[in-house]
UniProtKB/TrEMBL annotation:
Biased composition, class Polar residues, residue ranges: 17-26
Gene3D superfamilies in the record: 1.20.120.1080, P-loop containing nucleotide triphosphate hydrolases
Pfam families (alphabetical): DEAD, HA2_C, Helicase_C, OB_NTP_bind, WHD_HA2
GO biological process: positive regulation of transcription by RNA polymerase I
Organism: Psylliodes chrysocephalus
Protein's name according to its UniProt entry: RNA helicase
Region span, Disordered: 1-26
Protein keywords: ATP-binding, Helicase, Hydrolase, Nucleotide-binding
Length: 675
């Protein structure tokens, strides 16, 4: 069941530059020479001229051309930013941090990131008053726009990776367009807008930005041989590992491999298998250096993927779609494409939002393949058949058309605009906008769905970098006297999961964590784990986490998030860090205050139905409540496989729903009450 014979596809056969194809064999090229070798380098004068002449410009160039790292530096060297800053947005936190670090290195003179070059991502600000080139996630620029809607801090805003069409970038298109116009009308310092991408529908974007100029820079790419599997695989992870070792046996060392998988757990599992197998004396081939790349990783580890492998060693990088267009790893000759991606999806009809592993689009498949052809001719193994490929969507649907819009709607409202009339590049569906406004009304952020004025509560909610439902929990916790506990729970829910559930040791993991389990459910259980972790001495933490199957990195990250949220609370006059001690009813009521729209009711033997959209669901086996059947639960996560499962559960009482959300309960009666 091996791959079929190669089908050659030239992604681009012009501008070949074989001398550039040997990064890995030539050990040291100075960082400035590397800069001069990039395709954008020759075009810099032409680019600067275009940037000078146009207030809005679209720049299209192959991934790895040097758009993100070089263009901001060119603008800065030519002083085109004048007295303001250059802001460059990235859809992903990992990319913002790694690119800023790289640019700070390139800019040189012993500069560390945070000086002239800095970054700002959620829960981490690494800038100073000297910062002129600022990389930030699109979400951060959006937050900044809530405090200054015409973005006076910047004279140049670069919206990078525009093709990704994250919700935040999509809203930013509207915000920068408006800011530019307003600044023009008021005779303020002009705002230059640059839209960058490796691939996009230029006409669509150009039309939206008043028919602005677009420039296409020819990149350097080499042909990539594409291989499909002959039969479909149902276990793409195993196929990726097997394909890797097939390549590993045959390819020369220093021909590196990039594997695309979907998320942290899967990537770590696959890395583990490759590391173990590579040690097996029966496995032929050079040594293996296995790196991983995903959002929840600490910065230093992320940077290690850029280090060349030692001689006689093959580097394999296992990545989420971060490596598709956001970051370019030198030396890759082989790509293994699982064909899958984890994406946020939302169904207005069920009211549920979930992170779901799904098939990629053609656009993504071609971008992934292209990663193998940057330094020289490469190979891409697709872990799917040609006919499966044919069935994939052509392009990726913009996130705004498949996500819960409550957060976005709240952000738009802080600008005193109504989401119904916002100038979107592509309008989200009426249903989705309507639902978002309805949610905000139920949460008390606005008085009516048509209002463009936030209530004082709504204004407070908008100050938190959180889903409005979670902001509401924190704001209420102050009144209920359990802010400490609520902060912990919300922080734990805002990062990646702290629980490790290895496939082979699931029962063991659940057994050692049994002592933390609460009859109130998973959120209180998480709280118990966090409290216990806090009492463990610094030197024993690693062992403790290992013994209890807790991801130490993620729990430490949750702690940082908690500290940040505590700061926001203080700024919002929620300064008193009250604790409810053992009276956990207060905490559970707070959770209901924010999450009454996420409640499920028992119908019969372990079968539940969501109150909001009457979806039939069950408890996920990993929940500590899964053997019990409380009458009512609230949930924070939905996992969809062939069935719909709820995870992150807390038991609640019917009387609380009536007390806390009387308005909502008028239209969403409990079955037990109606019969
Ligand atoms: P683009 O935005 O056009 O995709 P980039 O500016 O991100 O291109 O990348 C230009 C080059 O910089 C790539 O060859 C990439 O390998 C290199 N690069 C980016 N970040 C790092 C890093 N942290 N270490 C080493 N090289 C890097
Ligand atoms: Mg880039």
């Amino acid at each position: 069941n091996g791959p079929s014979s190669p089908k050659k596809i030239k992604l681009n056969d012009e501008n070949r530059n074989p001398s550039n194809g040997q990064i890995n064999n030539k050990p040291k090229i100075s960082i400035q020479d590397q800069r001069r070798n990039l395709p954008v380098f020759d075009k810099r004068n032409k680019l600067l001229d275009l940037i000078k002449r146009h207030k809005t410009l679209i720049i299209l160039a192959e991934t790895g051309s040097g758009k993100t790292t070089q263009i901001p530096q060119y603008i800065f060297s030519a002083r085109l930013q004048e007295n303001g800053k250059i802001g460059i947005t990235q859809p992903r936190r990992v990319a913002a941090v790694s690119v800023a670090t790289r640019v700070a290195q390139e800019y040189g003179h012993g500069m560390s990131v945070g000086d002239t070059v800095g970054y700002s991502v959620r829960f981490e600000d690494c800038t100073s008053n000297k910062t002129k080139i600022k990389f930030l996630t699109d979400g951060m620029l959006l937050r900044e726009s809530m405090f200054d809607r015409i973005l006076m801090e910047y004279t140049v805003v670069i919206l990078d990776e525009a093709h990704e069409r994250t919700i935040h970038t999509d809203v930013l298109f509207g915000i920068v367009k408006r800011a530019q116009k307003t600044r023009e009308d008021r005779n303020l310092a002009p705002l230059k807008i640059i839209i960058m991408s490796a691939t996009m529908d230029v006409d669509h974007f150009s039309r939206y930005f008043n028919n602005c100029q677009a420039v296409y820079l020819e990149g350097r790419t080499f042909p990539v041989n594409i291989y499909y599997t002959i039969k479909p695989h149902d276990d793409y992870q195993t196929s990726c590992v097997a394909t890797f070792f097939k390549i590993h046996r045959e390819a020369p060392p220093n021909h590196d491999v990039l594997i695309f998988l979907t998320g942290q757990e899967e990537i770590e599992a696959c890395a583990h298998r490759i590391r173990m197998l590579a040690k097996d004396p029966d496995v032929k081939g050079p040594s293996v250096k296995c790196c991983t790349l995903y959002a929840a990783q600490p910065g230093a580890q992320q940077m290690s993927v850029f280090q060349p492998a030692p001689p006689n060693t093959r580097k394999v990088v296992i990545s989420t779609n971060i490596a598709e267009t956001s970051v370019t790893i030198p030396g890759i000759r082989y790509v293994i494409d699982s064909g899958m991606v984890k994406a946020r999806t939302f169904h207005p009809s069920t009211g549920l939002e979930l992170l779901k592993v799904q098939k990629i689009s053609h656009e993504q498949a071609w971008q992934r393949a292209g990663r193998a052809g940057r330094d020289s001719e490469g190979h891409c193994y697709r872990i799917y058949t040609r006919s499966q490929f044919e069935l994939m969507e052509k392009t990726t649907t913009p996130e705004i058309q498949r996500a819960n819009l409550a957060t976005v709607a709240l952000q738009i409202l802080t600008l005193e605009l109504h989401p119904n009339y916002f100038d979107f590049l592509d309008k989200p569906s009426k249903d989705a906008v309507g639902l978002a406004c309805e949610q905000l009304k139920l949460l008390g952020a606005v008085n009516s769905v048509d209002s463009i004025i936030l209530t004082p509560l709504g204004r407070k909610m908008s100050k938190f970098p959180l889903d409005p439902r979670f902001s509401k929990i924190l704001i209420t916790a102050q009144q209920y006297g359990c802010l400490q506990e609520a902060l912990t729970v919300v922080s734990l829910l805002s990062g990646e999961s702290i629980l490790i559930n290895p496939v082979t040791k699931q029962a063991e993991a659940q057994n050692v964590r049994q002592k933390f389990c609460s009859a109130y459910g998973d959120h209180v259980t998480l709280l118990n784990i966090f409290r216990e972790f806090d009492t463990v001495g610094q030197n024993n933490r690693r062992t403790w986490c290992h013994e209890h199957f807790i991801n130490m990195r993620n729990i430490l990250h949750a702690r940082e998030i908690r500290a940040q949220l505590e700061q926001v609370c203080k700024k919002c006059d929620l300064g008193v860090m009250s604790s409810c001690g053992g009276d956990l009813d207060r905490l559970r009521k707070c959770l209901v205050m924010g999450l009454f729209m996420n409640v499920a009711e028992l119908v019969r033997d372990h079968h539940y139905i969501t109150l909001d959209k009457k979806q039939s669901v069950q408890f996920h086996p990993s929940s500590c409540l899964h053997r019990q059947q409380p009458h009512l639960v609230l949930f924070t996560e939905v996992v969809q496989t062939n069935k719909c499962y709820l995870r992150g559960l807390t038991t609640v009482e019917a009387a609380w729903l009536q007390e806390i959300a009387p308005e909502y309960m008028k239209t969403h009666t409990l079955r037990s009450n109606s019969s």
